[in-house]
Specification:
This protein is mainly alpha-helical and 231 residues long. It contains ten helices and no strands. α6 packs across α9, α6 packs across α10 and α8 crosses α9. The protein is elongated, with a radius of gyration of 22 Å. The termini are far apart.
Amino acid sequence: MPDDPVTPARRAPALPPDERRAAIIEAAIPLLRQSGRRVTTREIAIAAGIAEGTVFRVFDTKDDLIRAVVEHVMDVSDTIDAILAIDGYRPLPERVRACVTILSTRLKSVFEIMVALHPRGRPDEEPDSRRAGTSGPEHAHGHARALHEARQAQLLDAIATVFEPAGGLLTCSPRRAAGLLRILAFSGAHPMIAGSEQLTADEITDVLLHGITRPETGPGSPTPTDTSTES
């Protein structure tokens, strides 16, 4: 006996094609985090408030929809805009903390999707959206990789603007500081690196700006002693 047709509790209003596509992707994201590839198009349709057939008028297959979700989550455009909107007149620690929060939130979202879609694999393996070109012409894959690298460079430039007002206080260039921040944020949010001890925005900010040793209070101040024992 066929399944009952999807009857959303509240039918979504008619939308232009681009907006309908975006709405379906947004509805699918939390379901993919929860169920991975086990999620059904029927569940996605209910969450989006549409009939299941509408999903297939926008996406040819469920795999196409999943690929679109991955591409959306991997897109750094909103992250770049949010970082560039940080007030440059705020104190440096506040700017860094705000930047780390924005970046860590995005990275955790990416990792959650990757883990859900590849439960036995690595959460940092290349998503389908970036592997897609490997089975097609080589130049298509090269274009996708070049585009990804260009966007990552733009992200790094955006992070560097957080440090530029305080350039005279830094021991390295703003762009190098941006690279260090990104490495700490990535490692601190990665489930296979940080595990259950994921770094907070405060911890990353403190380590990046002050290191892990206490400053000496004056001449002759005792040097902190490492009390750990070697095995």
